[in-house]
Specification:
The structure holds two protein chains of two kinds. Chain A is α/β, with parallel strands linked by helices. Helix content of chain A is 46%, strand content 20%. In chain A, strands 3-4-5-6-2-1-7 form a seven-stranded mixed sheet. Among the domains of chain B are: 141 residues, Elongation Factor Tu (Ef-tu), domain 3 (Beta Barrel), CATH 2.40.30.260; 95 residues, tRNA uridine 5-carboxymethylaminomethyl modification enzyme MnmG/GidA (Arc Repressor Mutant, subunit A); 60 residues, GidA associated domain, C-terminal subdomain (DNA polymerase, domain 1, Orthogonal Bundle). The chains are: A alpha/beta, B alpha+beta. At the A-B interface, α3, α4, α5, α13 and α14 of A face α18 and α21 of B.
């Protein structure tokens, strides 16, 4: 059963330093106590005095996960005025995420964006004058979360989830129409049929959970978009970046028909690279669509790699690209250095006011890649480019939702095994449907009623 | 266009002239407490509730002969609708008692499924139902019946306690010019407002069954700023029993043991000789005729403008939308004991008369059918129900309440349930008491009204069991346990009736406790008992409650190993068995209800201006302004209001509260 104790990562996620996981609510201390042990393998947090810090280890069952410092703040002397525990763990995205997940498994729910502050305010901790700022913050963080939730979900995953939901709602609609109109629709032999379907759904959800564990559900990483005129060498760059020496996480062809997307790791930093159609003014309808998409991708990008063909003169298409990278993090790649140059570096500097790093590369001869990697790494560690925390949190949120759906379906299976009547099945089927809907940002609303009327012929 | 002879259809200009003439006459003025407009299922309940609470009440109807008329199907109850009637009865309504007096067949639907979806449905003797209800109405103290068409609502502007300009109702005016001054008005106009009936190309401007439509009130409502919409529904043909061949149909019997609707009815009084219904099917030939004549259907020809319900589609709709279905069920049901008319359930239609006859005659058993009344579709004016509060009072006009099909619902039971609540709340308002509002965890009535006031209904709203998210708790068998107390507090349930429920509650609790604490050892006799009932052997000692959770064991079977058991009434045993057998599921829903209640308790002040709330998304702001929900819980159910908007709203409310305190 869900409690109202919330948890989240309180620091920015990064590969270095220390991260803090914050838990707040009635059961915060109890939950932390379950997973935290001292060197002497003792659970001591339950009786810990307020505002004390404790050295020890986080365990998941018997497995040691990390060496941590845990501070305990008892109500009302904390930010939220609720019992609060902060786990200071070794930084690193994987460990931090893992500890958060362990906390969630032990009874906390993932905090909604802005929820700690909201609670602080509702509990009277924050001054009245700041109310407006609190509301703004809630709105802004939610918008960010929503955006990342939808844009980061892999196309294939949302497809799978939509399919699963469709199957689930069909079964609920069948059961409910039979309950509403028993003289028209019979449930004879249905139990056996549903059992098979639930098994299939459980299998699919298990696969999805496994994928989530490998980080394959979400596109985690810096949204990187390769821009350039046609034939500037964009695809070659992507191939080089995604070459065998680099760890390819996954490759999914065609987020759109004309953009190729790859998840790549460069020096431990996750990049989500989208190769776009060449930017040029055109009357060709199909190509135009591709260009428009490239422009849209560029607008959402965390980092733009602008590939310049140094063997042809700059033209109005390049000017278009310059306007796209304005106000953005970008690296200009001076490509085709193996050919006689028509464009000079000086010309480029002048065009962009010298605000972007320019790197000479040759995708044909594999020159300049080292320097590019180094530049990306520097930008990352200096905090110039960063992946949004929200992406990771969203991934955890999605995973929790899949787990919830999975558990709901287990309850359905249990009800079938216990030979419960059909009306009991639809209750947990509905919970599964709602949980999956949260991943793709869809509310339940009138879905069921619509499904009943469109799929089943009611009487009178 | 053809007009039926008894229809009064005049254009607006003519109405003004008429009204002017009327105003020159010496007018009748009467003073009452409450005016109820319409004497259908909603109006009857509303009027009875007000009168029984001691208020001088007048109920208006266009025809006294049509009190509690059942113009469509001849039944009361059915899946989830049966729940509404039981709840209404527990609160002190009349419908349950009236159907117990006049039913001719009764069934508990879904009896093979879980207790939450068991639902009573009875065939009514329509004429008898009307007659009995009329008797109750006519003999009710403080209640007067008046045959008249109400054409105008009278209101006045006033300043409320906070000095804000408001409107309140002061009475009604009839077509003949009579004025009834009142403190509250309950509108229950059903399908009569600007009604028109369609049967193919033939259109009559009448209410159901050729009764006079109410053509004037809509304009008065619009003038008061009330948003009107147009809905549509339909009914199948009635046939002469003598022309049907029942040997070609399957006979359908009532239940052997009838359960009454009303908690006040003695179960022995309803064990009567029941009549049968009959089942037959359409076939490919039927569908062919329909398809060939679709262009003559007013719906498909675009003549009908109203929105029809998807849950009771016409036969033309079924054939078009479910083209791959080879046959559709047709239920032939008697309309009463003293008539030969038979209702043809499942084949409502607005096709022309000749097509109707041809299509009906393709159905086995109906080959030589004679139609007494043609099937028809009916269009009528109703309101967008989000203009109402959960008490069914208009948000913008104090003292004006409404119920039933006028609110955009459909069905006798939905109407009656709203009528009762609107009536009670009109009375509460006059008495200066808190309104009776059931929430979604307290009853189907709560779900029904909450849906009406928070969801945009684009078609006539019908109750469905899937709409009740806490349905395991909202069973028809425990409606008395859930709601008698509220009925008693309101004043419609007597002390004696209330005490009876309290006693029942106590007996249930005690028996559950006893069963949980009666240990059953793994003795040899007990093991033998298990074996005999094909139940797993006991490994250790257990208790009676644990054992009853086993599907193969029941309260009755367990009596053998439960010698201390005291004899208990059947309804108590039923509750004990359900509460124990489904304890896990019930406990889970109870926890969900706890969460739900928290949000319901956070009330939103009526004068809150959403334009002052920063950071709401535009869509949410517009929706919140349009609906003006009563609580944060209600706000969260409005589509287009996101959880983040709710968070913002919570912060703002806290801000608002603290500012007020400072």
């Amino acid at each position: 059963m869900k409690t109202e104790t919330i948890a989240a990562i309180a620091t920015a996620l990064s590969e270095s330093g220390i991260s803090i996981i914050r838990i707040s609510g009635k059961e915060a201390i109890e939950i932390a106590d379950k997973i935290f042990q001292t060197k002497g393998k003792k659970h001591i947090l339950k009786n810990a005095v307020s505002h004390t810090i404790h050295y020890g280890f986080i365990y998941e069952e018997d497995e040691l996960v990390d060496e941590v410092m845990v501070s305990v703040m008892r109500a009302p002397h904390s930010y939220t005025t609720e019992d609060t525990v902060e786990i200071n763990c070794h930084g690193g995205v994987l460990i931090t995420k893992r500890i958060l997940e362990i906390v969630l498994k032990n009874g906390a729910v993932l905090a909604q964006p802005g929820e700690f502050t909201k609670r602080a305010f509702l509990n009277g901790r924050i001054d009245l004058s700041e109310a407006e700022a609190v509301m703004d913050m809630i709105k802004a963080t939610n918008e960010l979360a929503l955006k990342s939730s939808l844009s980061q979900l892999r196309g294939s995953v949302s497809e799978v989830i939509r399919n699963l939901r469709e199957k689930i709602i069909y079964e609920i609609a069948f059961i409910e129409s039979a309950l509403d109109d028993p003289e028209h629709i019979s449930t004879e032999g249905y139990k056996e049929k549903l059992e098979v379907i639930v098994e299939e759904l459980l299998f699919e959800l298990k696969k999805l959970l496994d994928r989530a564990d490998c980080g394959k559900m979400m596109k985690e990483g810096i949204r990187t978009v390769i821009l350039g005129k046609p034939n500037a060498g964009k695809s070659s760059l992507l191939n080089l970046l995604a070459g065998e020496e680099k760890a390819i996480v996954t490759d999914i062809a065609g987020t759109t028909r004309d953009a190729l997307e790859e998840s790549i790791k460069i020096r431990g930093i996750g990049l989500n690279v989208i190769d776009t159609a060449g930017i040029r003014f055109t009357d060709d309808v199909v190509e135009k669509i591709g260009v428009e998409k490239a422009i849209r991708f560029a607008k959402d990008a965390d980092l733009i790699l602008y590939v310049v063909d140094s063997s042809t003169p700059l033209d109005k298409n390049d000017l278009e690209i310059f306007s796209l990278i304005e106000q953005k993090n970008a690296i200009i790649l001076f490509n085709k250095t193996d050919l006689p140059a028509v464009v000079t570096e000086a010309e480029l500097f002048e065009k962009c006011g010298g605000s972007y790093p320019v790197i000479k590369i040759s995708t044909v001869e594999n020159i300049g890649m080292e320097e590019l990697e180094e530049t990306i790494q520097t930008m990352f560690f200096r905090g110039k480019i960063s992946f949004e925390n929200e992406v990771y949190l969203t991934n955890i949120r999605h995973k929790e939702a899949v787990r919830e759906a999975y558990e709901s379906l287990l309850l359905v299976k249990n009800s079938i095994d216990l030979d419960m009547p059909e009306d009991f099945y639809s209750i947990d089927l509905m919970s599964a449907y709602a949980a999956l809907g949260r991943i793709i940002g869809e509310e339940v609303g009138e879905d069921l009623v619509n499904e009943i009327f469109s799929k089943f012929c009611m009487g009178k | 266009m053809r007009f039926s002879q008894n229809s009064v259809w005049v254009n607006n200009k003519d109405i003004d002239l008429l009204m002017e003439e009327v105003s020159h006459m010496a007018e009748i003025r009467e003073q009452v407490d409450v005016c109820v407009v319409g004497a259908g299922h909603a109006g009857c309940e509303a009027a009875l509730a007000c009168a029984r609470l001691g208020l001088e009440t007048v109920i208006f109807t266009v025809s006294v002969d049509s009190i509690a008329l059942m113009p469509c199907n001849p039944n009361v109850g059915g899946s989830s609708k049966g729940h509404l009637v039981r709840e209404l009865d527990a609160l002190g309504g009349e419908m349950g008692k009236n159907i117990d007096k006049t039913f001719i067949q009764s069934k508990m639907l879904n009896a093979s499924k879980g207790p939450a979806v068991h639902s009573l449905r009875a065939q009514a003797d329509k004429a008898d139902y009307t007659r009995e209800m009329r008797k109750v109405i006519e003999n009710q103290e403080h209640l007067m019946v008046k045959q008249a068409e109400v054409c105008e609502l009278l209101t006045e502007d006033y300043e409320d306690e906070d000095g804000i300009a408001e409107k309140r109702i002061t009475g009604v005016k009839t077509f003949t010019g009579a004025v009834y001054e009142s403190k509250a008005v309950v509108l229950c106009t059903g399908t009569y407002l600007k009604a028109r009936c369609l049967c193919g190309e033939a259109i009559t401007y009448t209410g159901p069954n050729g009764l006079q439509a109410a053509n004037h009130l809509t304009d008065s409502l619009k003038a008061l700023g009330i948003e009107i919409r147009r809905f549509k529904t339909g009914t199948p043909a009635r046939m002469d029993r003598r022309s049907l061949d029942f040997s070609k149909m399957e006979e359908q019997f009532g239940d052997e043991r009838v359960v009454p609707f009303s908690f006040s009815t003695d179960p022995e009084d309803v064990q009567i000789d029941q009549v049968s219904c009959y089942l037959t099917y359409t076939n490919e030939k039927t569908h062919e005729i329909i398809r060939a004549n679709l262009d003559r259907s007013p719906i498909y020809a675009g003549i009908i403008e109203g929105t029809g319900p998807r849950y009771c589609p016409s036969i033309e709709d079924k054939v078009v939308k479910f083209a791959d279905k080879e046959r559709h069920q047709v239920f032939i049901e008697p309309e009463g004991l003293h008539t030969n008319e038979m209702y043809v359930g499942g084949m409502s239609s607005s096709l022309p008369e000749d097509v109707q006859l041809a299509m009906y005659r393709t159905v086995p058993g109906l080959e030589h059918c004679k139609i007494v009344r043609n099937a028809y579709a009916i269009e009528y004016d109703c309101i967008n129900s989000i203009q109402l509060k959960s008490s069914l009072e208009f948000k913008k006009i104090r003292g004006l309440f409404s119920a039933g099909q006028f609110n955009g619902s459909s069905g006798y039971e939905e109407a009656a349930a709203q009528g009762l609540i609107a009536g009670i709340n009109a009375a509460m308002e006059i008495k200066g008491k808190e309104p009776l509002i059931l929430d979604r965890s307290e009853g189907y009535i709560g779900v029904l009204i909450d849906d009406l006031v928070t969801k945009e209904t684009r078609e006539p709203y019908r109750m469905m069991t899937s709409r009740a998210e806490y349905r395991l708790l909202l069973r028809q068998d425990n409606a008395d346990l859930r709601l008698r107390e509220k009925g008693y507090e309101v004043g419609l349930i007597t002390e004696k009736q209330y005490k009876k429920v309290c006693e029942k509650k106590k007996m249930i609790e005690e028996e559950i406790e006893r069963m949980k604490h009666t240990t059953i050892g793994a003795s040899k006799e007990n093991q033998e008992f298990m074996k005999r009932h094909e139940s797993a052997e006991l490994r250790t000692g257990t208790n009676l409650a644990e054992l009853m959770c086993r599907p193969e064991l029941s309260y009755e079977i367990l009596s053998e190993i439960d010698p201390q058991r005291k004899p208990l009434p059947a309804d108590v045993i039923e509750q004990v068995e359900i509460e124990i057998k489904y304890e896990g599921y019930i406990a889970r829903q109870m926890r969900q209800v706890e969460q739900y209640k928290k949000m319901e308790k956070k009330k939103i002040p009526e004068q809150l201006n959403y334009n002052d709330v920063p950071s709401l998304r535009l869509e949410a702001r517009q929706k919140l302004i349009a609906y003006h929900p009563a609580s944060v819980g209600q706000a969260s159910r409005i589509s287009g209001v996101s959880p983040a908007d709710i968070s913002v709203l919570l912060v703002y409310l806290e801000h608002y509260q603290r500012q007020k305190e400072e």
